[in-house]
Design goal:
Blueprint: H1 11-23, H2 26-33, H3 37-51, E1 56-58, E2 63-65, H4 67-88, E3 97-102, H5 105-122, E4 126-131, E5 146-151, E6 159-172, H6 174-177, E7 191-194, H7 199-208, E8 219-221, H8 224-232, E9 237-242, H9 246-251, E10 255-256, E11 262-272, H10 280-296
Helix pairs in contact: 1-2, 1-3, 1-4, 2-3
Length: 300
């Protein structure tokens, strides 16, 4: 068979071009690829020299694709994605390399980071990178391999693996817990709310039949871990979510009241592009998370 002579530009220069073309920014491309903007700029200049045509129109504060760049970008992106899928699907490939995981900030702080050393001990060849921004992740172009999400499932175009259920239980400082025996005792107590999940108090009241008035008032926070910290400091009662509050419960910083915990409609999911689930790194992380969450979510 006659050998094919591939006339290809440097692969790394194509990665730089794809990232810069997607962001229309050398700086943001550099942040994604863990490089300097100067390195990105020089790499793209070498690609332009190799092609003999400019790919970007550079302004003082702007970056735009030229006609050639706009035509080249989707083809480069498709080729890189094809190479990625081919590499990830090599039979027998062992889990190694970098794994980028998008997680909600509270989950990352309260559960994942404290438990991550166990994963590192089991898989020392996998370097985990955490992204706790609230941005919408576009797989796989954003450089994120998978995401941990809390919800009811149903992410169009993505594969979602259910990891563990979530439970709701009111939590407060032990010094306050002794005075809260019934839902009526909450009438004179400050309720702590999380803006993004305000339905927790009303949903818990429905599930338990507590008939709790969950209107205005109380203190409000933008993250779950801030609400739990406020509860631990005696500022009021927070709607705890398990397993997130597990460590504070074990340490005695928080105490449950009006239990037992009730199972929520939401759960923890591992979300990724369908083709990513076969990657050994993703499979290793999925299996570890399932086991670790099963150990910490020990609610009947």
């Amino acid at each position: 068979m006659r050998a094919l002579a591939y006339r290809l530009p440097p692969l790394n220069a194509l990665r730089l071009f794809e990232a810069a073309g997607r962001h229309l920014s050398f700086k943001r491309a550099a942040e994604e690829l863990h490089l300097t903007p100067s390195a990105v700029s020089h790499g793209i200049q070498s690609l332009e020299a190799w092609l003999g045509v400019p790919l970007f129109a550079r302004g003082n504060r702007s970056l735009e694709l030229t006609a050639a760049g706009a035509a080249y970008l989707p083809q480069v992106r498709a080729a890189l994605e094809l190479l990625t899928r081919a590499t990830e699907s090599v039979p027998g490939r062992r889990p190694c390399g970098r794994l980028s995981v998008s997680v909600p900030p509270s989950f990352g702080l309260l559960w994942l980071v404290p438990n991550l050393p166990r994963f590192a001990a089991r898989h020392p060849d996998i370097a985990v990178s955490l992204d706790t921004s609230h941005r919408h992740v576009e797989f796989p172009r954003d450089g994120v391999d998978l995401a941990v999400r809390m919800g009811r499932g149903g992410w169009p175009g993505l594969s979602a693996v259910r990891l563990a259920p979530e439970y709701l239980v009111p939590l407060c400082a032990p010094s306050l817990a002794a005075g809260i025996r019934t839902a009526a005792d909450l009438a004179g107590t400050t309720l702590l709310h999380v803006e993004s999940v305000e339905e927790d108090w009303s949903r818990w009241s429905e599930l338990t039949g507590a008939g709790l008035e969950t209107g205005r008032g109380g203190l409000r926070f933008d993250t779950i871990h801030m609400a739990l910290e406020a509860a631990a400091r005696g500022l009021g009662v927070a709607m705890g979510r398990l397993p997130l509050a597990g460590a504070d419960l074990e340490a005695g910083r928080l105490a449950p009241v009006l239990g037992p915990p009730v199972r929520a409609e939401t759960a923890y999911w591992l979300v990724a592009a369908p083709e990513s689930l076969a990657r050994p790194e993703v499979a290793a992380f999925r299996d570890w998370m399932r086991g670790a969450l099963a150990e910490t979510v020990s609610i009947p």
